[in-house]
Amino acid sequence: MDVLLAAAEATSEGGPLARYLGYVASQWPILLLLLLVAVVLTRLPKIELGHSLAYRRRRVINWLPLGLTYAFLYMGRYNLTVSKNEFAELGLMDNADFGVIFGIGTLTYGFAFLLNGPLTDRYGGKRAILVGAGGSAVMNTLMGLVTLEVTTTGAAGSLTTALNTVGLPFFEALSAFRGLFGLDSGDLERSVLLPALSLLYAGNMYFQSFGAVAIVKVNAPWFHVRERGVFGAIFGILISLGVYFAYDWGGMIVRNLPTQYVFLIPAGLLTLFWVLSFALVRDTPSQAGFRDFDTGDASSGDDGPQLGALQVFRMMLTNPVIITIACIEFCSGFLRQAIMQWYRIFSKQVGIAESFVPTNWGLLLCCAGILGGLFAGVISDHVFQSRRGPVVAVLYGILLASAVVMIFVLQTPALGWLVVFMSMAVIGVHGMLSGTASMDFGGRKNAGIAVGIIDGFVYLGTAVMSFWYGWRLPSGDAAKDPANWSEWPVWMIPVALIGFVLALRVWHSKPQGKRAAH
User: Is the domain 55-174+190-285+307-511 a CATH 1.20.1250.20 member?
Assistant: First the structure.
């Protein structure tokens, strides 16, 4: 620990790259917490399913590069959020613009599952993660290049002009949305990046949508239902690392390097992990030289051919548990980004960005997410017999109570720690439902479409939040007064209440395969 701190201090007076590397070296709490989690997981009572040590080791080699690829997809997704304030200072993006660009991207993400879920079930999770990581790397590279053009010359270059032309429909949708609510759109023509970023961010989010589908699809044949709660904890840890990479690493990039690198560096990391995933990931145990086994989920006993996509969609959409989980995740999508995305913007605009929580936002979110995922996964498997509903109900109860308290601490230092606590709960919910319940109730055969429906609802919820908050929350000088942000927590309360009530409805639900049904 002392060595890491000394390294950080030694590089603190160097150039931007040296300061960034020193900052990375100083992030020892993450490593310490991950080590603690690893110790806890290894000390838990074993759920014996007959896995050999060689199988367990190969499974780690399978999900680790896949999971880190997913984490770096997060870094290449929320870099727009991280760089929003810098774009605002350049006169290229205000709160309403950001809300609509992010909203267009999340709508694209949500509806992309209608296509990408069936594609992943048909062609496999490995191909899905390769398409997702590769496509996102390309989109991030293009976002970096157009940012470089505009920030260097102050005007659109040839690449930006070409992308603006193609992205004109997104730009017009942005203008129409602002005009619909009587908002001034006269400055949009001066914001030369808006059409291009609307197009490229939508493209990025299309490819990003392969990530969650791929990680669930690949891991479904490797994990039995009885051990998937702990995998849900791992899924939450990966999400948390992705958030940490996005906010803390991305924040350091923005503060110490030209803005375009917040897009170009994630593109490079995604390219590296594309290669590792190609070399190491296998869709099933049999492809890695092990025996496939019955995972005890909704596909248990189903040895027939793969159903067509429309048949599977019909089956999923008529399954009350799947639909209830999807509706819960709609609420999770609203709440997750209402907390994680808007707190950073709030802290910057009300002038508290240099306080402890905003300065260490990614680090604290990562710690909170790791703890939330561990809590949810462990008690699901070891207390509630691999049922996901009870855990989700507990976490939604925390979110509901916290949203009420948030109204009263909005103008106090306690707000930062409260939203970190709320992040722990909502990341735990997301890991349990999108990362685990989608496998359970979709089954290994149809996990792609199941997670597509469930995670699609997450991002539909995020899109609703983004459009709504982009319209309702203050901009400009009004945003400097915390009192003007009173609607921020108010809208979380009914959403958290709905999520809590729905979670109670699936309290006793467990997957029933064909073999179990007979």
Answer: yes
